[in-house]
Amino acid sequence: MIDRNKLAGMGAGLLAATVMFGAGTAGAQPAAGEYVFGFVTETTGPLAAAGVSYHRGAQVAVEEINASKWIGSGVTVKLSEKESGSDAARAVQAMTQFVADRNVLAVTCCILSPVAGAMRPVAANAKIPLVFYGATLPGLPQPPYVSSVVALPGPQEVKMTQLIVDKMKPKSVAYFVNADNEGFQNRFKAAQKVMEGAGVKTAGVVSILSADTDFTAPATQAMGMNPDLIMVWTTQTPAAGIIAALRNRGYAGAITASDVIAPNAVFKKIGEPLAGVPFPIAFAAGVSSSPEAKAFADAFQKKFGELPDTYAAQGYTSVWYMSQGLKSLSGKANREALATALAKVGSIEHNVYGGLPMVAGQADVQKALVVNWSKDGKVVAWEPK
Amino acid sequence: METLLDLWAAYGSTIAFAMVNALFALSTYAVLSTGVLSFTTVVFAAVGGFLAAQSVAHLGIGLWPAFALAGIGGAVAGSVVAAAFLKLDSHWMALASLALVLITRVTVLNTPLLTGGVNGLVVPMSVPMGDLVILLALVAAVFWRLHRSWYGLAARAVREDAAVASTMGIPPRGIQFTAFVISGAVGGIGGAALAFTLQFISPETYFIGMAFTMIASTVLGGSFHWFGPIVGAAVFTALPVTMQSVLPAIEDVAKGVVLLVIMIFLPRGLVDPRAVGLRRAARRRVSAEEGTDV
Amino acid sequence: MSDAALSRPLLELDTVVKTFGGVTAVGGLSTRVTRGSVHGLIGPNGAGKTTLINLITGLFHPTSGAIRFEGRSLEAMQPQAIATLGITRTYQNVRLFSGMTVLEQVMTGCWLTREVGVFASFLGLPSARAAWVRTREHALSLLARVSMDHRADELAETLSYGEQRRIEIARALGSRPKLLLLDEPTAGMNHQEATAIGRLVHELRDAGLTILMVEHNMGLVTEFCDDCTVVNFGRLLATGDPATCLADPDVQEAYFGRKTDAERIQALR
Amino acid sequence: MILFLEQALNGWALGSLYALFGIGFGLVFSTLGILNAAHGTYASWAAIVGYYVVERAGLPFPVAVGVGVAAGGLLALAVDQIAFQPLRSRKAGMLGALITSIAFWIILDSLAGFATEQQSLAFPAASFPSGMIDIGPMKVGQLQLIIIAVLIVCTIGIHLLIQKTRLGTAMRAVGWNEVAAALGGVNARMVILLTAFLAGATSGLAGVLAGAATSNVSFTLGEGLMLKGFAAVVVGGYDDVRGTAIAGILLGIIEVFVAQYVSTALRDGFTYSLLLIFLVARPRGLFGSAGFVRA
After folding, report:
1. Single pTM value for the model
2. Residues of chain C neighbouring B166 (CB-CB closer than 8 A)
3. Range C1-86+177-260 classified under CATH 3.40.50.300
4. Interface ipTM
């Protein structure tokens, strides 16, 4: 029995060398049984709001995969959760416990890039696949062990900005940007480049910090610049606060934002001032039209009573990605084989983005929707006025 | 055997963090044992951590030289802090040191050339468990010697009553200055140990959370003997892990409650040499009343 | 005691003033303590006696005036520097260190005579160990002197008040001072214990120590003090030998109030 | 010029929140001698309770403010009695209380997370005075004016309470020395309870107002106020509410202007450098009294 498994394993190794993986049609399948993925949750601490979404998305993925016997008959996956509270030391401890648990095949984690940075060497040393579901710092993946299903910012922002230039024809723009977040500074620079390339003047740049909560003064500052358009390139809490403060102070002009305002909670919190503010997004329940996206939205709605947001979609994608790697193995799967298989994944088959190529361990989301909140709290495709 | 190995693999990192936290707690204890409540261990840790990380990355030095450098850097920082702050009375000293922790984070954020700024710094070296054990043992040995030396006796006197100590010729400021230098060195070494354990450090690594963790570890374990902080750090590091397996949903609440209960019932901490003496005295009283020999 | 030595006072206070906010605790007080004497400092509660002791030991600095010890000015000196010159003290409310054994308390008092650097002691060099043992024996002998050596290894705070006072005296003797300031050394003691303290004070004087003591027990003052200074409201009322001082009508009036109280003083004797 | 004035007012309103929070924190520190790490959670909880009063019970905003203030005060009382009182009777000093306050900080923060389902909530704009008022060419938020007025009233009120009333004298006496105060006929226990309540209530007030003004009702609310309120206390001198008030306002205005005219990245650096300068050059703060003598 053991010998046969060994042989099968060797067979899989040979196959791996010769067969193109990711098509899902490779004849072999892993031995029946329950496979465990470690999930480092962040459902407490400063990022708990988003952390809950990632976790819920992953749970939906597990249910879909198991119900559809997608990996193979008798093969199921299961999440094993450990909480980190977004603290690097606790995350590393959770990771080493997963490493020690021989049942855990792969681990997925991390919203914050510094935490992800601390997790990376642990995974590489322990030779266990690690998939990031949230951290957006470019260059985090380190094949074969470390990969990321996070859509890096860039293309979506450019696309939306181009659309804005074409449709709204602003003459001057004021920008809000995080002074302490390189990701958002890059998004801002990308947008500014498009704007200035089209001859749109920069009225001014207002920078804020992630931990800020009072935006009356920044809003006053931006309004003092008299721009035609205000683009908000900041993290979530500031973005929501800035838009609310601008509208509160009576700014009636156009505002754009990023996908950070997509989660339901943000609309629930800010309400009407958010309506009509366009933002680019890779996935929006109700707008994304692929069957996978619709099925995911329905299943999520059924289980949790609300539509999934973009974070939920990322947690969901992470589990599907790991399962796809698992599916391509045969016999008793192990971590190294799974890592090799994951590194070979050319695109994530089951996704809600309408195609999700993986390049060097990094998901590459090209398509972007431009959407906005309607007054009654639905995400709808943006229609320029 | 395999289960044992699994356990070790699962909780090895917890033990490593407990040892790093023990270094921080000892650094806090160094000043606390002379009667100064200071949060500046975080500052020393940041100095040591970034110094060690940068020097292994750019100077190509080894693990132990990096520890030595971090210790020296921390000690220098300690003497600067002591020179600036020791004139303040105890309450202000506590506030000032807390303010310095806030300033440290802003400084770290705004000097990306030295610290990597908001993106943090990858540390291209890790510390093996064995080395960490040796490091902690060395530091503990220093505290053991200090405790049994004239410095230890003077420190205890200054802590209990600085004015009385001064009328016996013990210079309180001098003792406290020495304490800060020791705290700086140990804090710096701890900061380096943390950098080599996490292998990634950022401004958030050395901030308020750490300040409160180390002070809680120290007082929880007992700040009247050098062994207390080590015990405290072990307990405080293990608490979240333990609580996660017992009460996963409310592990933080449970951790807080445990801390609260221990502090209310053992306000001098888990390791308290005085309690031993008091118990002995109580026994003696009882036996004296019963008219028997001790 | 030779006339020359007696003529030059060990401690000299020259119009010392100390005010706290607007309140004058000591208002221009002058007195002198003769080398090799037991000098009583007496006065009603709140007269400024403990403030004087604090001024001499450097815990307070005088607002104006001069304090000279062997001719050196103490006004601007830190307590530890004054201790180094050879002045130590005890406290009105015993101030022993919590958590220390009796022996450790006295060892702490031996800080200035420890004969070894802090760093050598940290390293545990043989010379440092030998010095430690010597200091320990010295401390034990001091404890024997106050009849507390049998309690050397016990926590001081578990002992009685009278015992603690004696430990404090032993601690103050640790650095072999020239001048010992005792702040109400017999408070809370019964007559027998108080007399024992009086005798100890005489023994110490005979061994060459000068003692300035705040004392309420008039019997002890007249019996054991060579000189005394009487203060009230921070001012000098009288100074000289105890019998003359206590007979001074101003002292009678100020310190003991009405005549009936003056009679009580007889009873105390 | 109008922009300058508007920004000055924005800074004033922002600083008033820091000051209002700092007053409570400083009161506990100066009177009870406790460095209370849990103080920020009083503000968070007051805002959360206030939010639910508006959102679930549908009551008007002033009621929410009242309930929030009471919640802050009662929470402070509870923490004082559970975490500090047992140590007080054992003379465990500032250190023990700091640790139990850290314990309560962990507990209350994490419970606040559950109470808000880890979300950041906001008072509906219609529920509180969120409109703008035109003062000449300037636009000023109604709530901003309310916050500014509240700080002025609270500062004057508490200053008079401490300096002019019997209770205030008793509070100061407890601040110096609890034993002496008890001997002097002051009911120390009562003074402690009142101080704790007052401190919790002012911080609660700051919490509700900040929650409304910044559209952020969550467990992170208190932490933000705590850091800046702490700075206000240090710069102002912890034993004088006037100092805290002025320092808080100053910090708010400096923050706004540094962000506008210098750099946002350096903004907190400015604040904390000011803090450092005060610590080293004038360690007793703006109004701090001269050192008292201890032997």
Report:
1. 0.87
2. 58-59, 78-80, 83
3. yes
4. 0.84
